[in-house]
Design brief:
This protein is an alpha/beta fold and 486 residues long. Helix content is 29%, strand content 17%. Helix 13 packs across helix 14 (423-430). The two termini are 14 Å apart.
C-alpha cells in the first residue's frame, strides 16, 4: 500500500511503501530525530517478551523509573499516587500544579463495568510505537510522552477510582510487528493511545475488527487512516494542506517567492508531499521554477545547487530526512549559495538539526502546528517537565507532543463518561471531537472528522536555537486541496 502524504513534513523520506521498501538506517533515522536526541532501545522492544516499568507519578516524584524482567511480553507501566481532580482551568506551567483534564466534569460512576483492560484498580492503555528495527528508539518520544501524561494524570486524578496503566508494545518498524502488537493490544488493553509507527497499516484491520479505540499521535498510512476505530491527535485529510505558512513567507519576502525551488528526497511519501507543498505555494502566488527529487543513493548535491544558482533561486524548500537536509545545506554553503528563505519541515524541528548542520542550517525555517517548545505555553511546559520525570535529558518532539495530546483526549473523555465508559461509548465521543487543542497545546484539530488543520506557527533557527517568528499566536490560512488528495 502506498504511504499517504501527511502532516507538513511529519512523514518525509523515511515514510516508505508499506509494501516493503528497504532503507538504509540513516534514511529511517530522521523520522525519529526530533525525539530523545539519542538512538536508544526502547523498553519492551520485543512484543514476545519484555519488562515491567513503574513510574512514580506522585506530586513529589522525580523521574524514578525502575524495571524488572517480565515473561508475558510487552511492557506495563504503572503510575502511582494522587487524588481525583475536577474543576480548574487549563494546566499551569508549574509541574506541581495544573489539572490534567482541564477541569473536565467527572461523570457518575454508577453502573461502571469492568471489561477488557479494566479492573477495579486500573485501566490499561497500550502504546505501540517503533522502538526497534533499523533505528532503535525511532519513535520512543511518542512512548515517553504517553507515559509522561499518564504519570501526570495519575498524580492528580483517576477514572472512577482507577489509575491508568501503560502497556508498552513495540511495532518494530515492521508491518508484521504492528499487527502483532495490536493483536496483544486488543486482548490486553482497553484502548491504544499515542502510538506512532511507519508501518501502521499492519495492525489496522486487527484494530478495527476487535473494536479497539486507537487514539494515535499520528496516522501515517492509508490503511490506518481508513480504520474506523483509529484517530489521530494530529489530524488531517491526505493531500489537503494549509497555505498559512506560504502566506507568511510571501509577507516576509515576496520577491524570494517568485523564484522558488522545491526539492525532495525521492523516496516513499516525500515526492507527493513536496508536490502538495509546491501546489499550495503556487495557490498563493509562488513561482515554482524547480520541483525535483534527489535519489537516496545520491551523495553529491552540487549539481542541484548549481541548477538553483543558474536559475537564480531565492526560496528553497526541502522535504526529506534530517541527514539529507543537512547535506543540502552543506552543499549550498560550499558553493556560496545562500537563498533568501530556506524552509524545512517539522521533522527537523529539534536540537539534532543544528547539532548536525551547525552554522550552515542557521536561519532555516519550519512550519509546525503548535507553539515553539520554548514559548512558555502552559500545556507544553507540563509536557516538557513531566517528560523529564520519565526520562531525564529527553528532548521534546512534535511526535511526543501529539502523543501527550492523544493521551489527554483519552483521559478527558474517560473521566467524563464515568460509569458509561466502554469501547463503544469512547469511540462515539471521539467521533464528535471537531476542535481539539489539548488545553491550548496545539492548533485546533478535527480529530473525529480526520480533517486537516488551517493554522500553524513558523519557527526559525537563530544562533542554534529554534525561535517562533510568526508572532505569539497562530497564522491561519486556507485549506488547499492539491492533486495529491484522494
Amino acid at each position: 500500500m502506498r504511504v499517504i502524504v501527511l502532516v507538513l513534513g511529519l512523514v518525509l523520506s523515511a515514510l516508505f511503501s508499506a509494501c516493503g521498501s528497504q532503507l538504509h538506517p540513516d534514511d529511517v533515522r530522521a523520522v525519529g530525530q526530533t525525539g530523545t536526541g539519542t538512538a536508544v532501545s526502547g523498553a519492551g522492544a520485543d512484543v514476545g517478551g519484555g519488562t515491567t516499568t513503574s513510574v512514580d507519578g506522585s506530586s513529589g516524584g522525580g523521574g524514578d523509573v525502575s524495571t524488572a524482567g517480565g515473561s508475558d511480553g510487552g511492557t506495563t507501566s504503572s503510575t502511582g499516587g494522587g487524588t481525583s481532580s475536577s474543576g480548574g482551568g487549563p494546566s499551569g506551567g508549574d509541574d506541581e500544579a495544573g489539572d490534567p483534564t482541564g477541569g473536565t466534569k467527572a461523570g457518575s460512576c454508577d453502573g461502571f463495568e469492568n471489561s477488557t483492560g479494566i479492573t477495579d484498580k486500573e485501566i490499561i492503555v497500550a502504546n505501540s510505537s517503533d522502538l526497534s528495527g533499523p533505528v532503535p528508539g525511532l519513535f520512543e518520544s511518542a512512548r515517553l510522552a504517553t507515559a509522561a501524561y499518564l504519570a501526570y494524570f495519575n498524580s492528580r486524578s483517576d477514572v472512577c477510582g482507577r489509575k491508568l496503566t501503560l502497556l508498552e508494545l513495540d511495532s518494530k518498524t515492521d508491518s508484521a510487528g504492528d499487527q502483532a502488537a495490536y493483536t496483544r493490544a486488543c486482548a490486553e488493553s482497553f484502548a491504544a493511545v499515542g502510538s506512532v509507527s511507519i508501518y501502521d497499516a499492519g495492525g489496522a484491520r486487527t484494530t478495527q475488527e476487535c473494536g479497539l479505540p486507537d487514539l494515535r499521535a499520528n496516522i501515517l498510512t492509508e490503511g490506518r487512516a481508513d480504520c474506523t476505530t483509529c484517530f489521530a491527535a494530529q489530524a488531517l485529510e491526505p493531500g489537503v494542506i494549509t497555505d498559512a505558512a506560504y502566506q507568511f513567507y510571501t509577507k516576509q519576502n515576496k520577491a524570494a517567492t517568485q523564484s522558488a525551488a522545491f526539492l525532495y528526497l525521492d523516496l516513499g511519501g516525500s515526492p507527493d508531499l513536496a508536490r502538495s507543498f509546491s501546489e499550495t505555494a503556487e495557490s498563493v502566488g509562488f513561482q515554482v521554477k524547480i520541483l525535483k527529487g534527489i535519489g537516496t543513493a545520491e551523495f553529491n548535491y552540487a549539481p542541484f545547487v548549481q541548477e538553483m544558482k543558474d536559475k537564480d533561486i531565492r526560496f528553497v524548500s526541502f522535504t526529506g530526512a534530517t541527514i539529507q537536509a543537512v547535506r543540502l545545506a552543506d552543499a549550498m554553503a560550499q558553493q556560496n549559495f545562500e537563498p533568501d528563505q530556506f524552509v524545512v519541515t517539522q521533522t527537523q524541528y529539534g536540537p539534532e538539526f543544528h547539532e548536525q548542520g551547525g552554522a550552515n542550517v542557521d536561519g532555516a525555517m519550519a512550519p509546525v502546528p503548535h507553539p515553539a517548545f520554548n514559548s512558555g505555553n502552559p500545556e507544553i511546559t507540563q509536557y516538557v517537565q513531566w517528560l523529564q520525570r520519565v526520562k531525564p535529558g529527553a528532548s521534546p518532539s512534535t511526535f511526543g507532543l501529539f502523543a501527550w495530546s492523544a493521551a489527554r483526549l483519552f483521559a478527558e473523555r474517560a473521566v467524563a463518561l464515568g460509569g458509561k465508559l466502554s469501547r463503544e461509548t469512547l469511540l462515539a465521543e471521539i467521533r464528535k471531537v471537531g476542535s481539539w487543542t489539548a488545553g491550548g497545546m496545539h492548533a485546533e484539530m478535527n480529530v473525529g472528522g480526520k480533517k486537516s488543520f488551517p493554522c500553524q506557527t513558523v519557527v526559525q533557527l537563530q544562533q542554534g536555537e529554534w525561535q517562533q517568528i510568526s508572532g505569539k499566536g497562530y497564522t491561519c490560512g486556507n485549506l488547499v486541496r492539491t492533486s495529491v488528495a484522494r
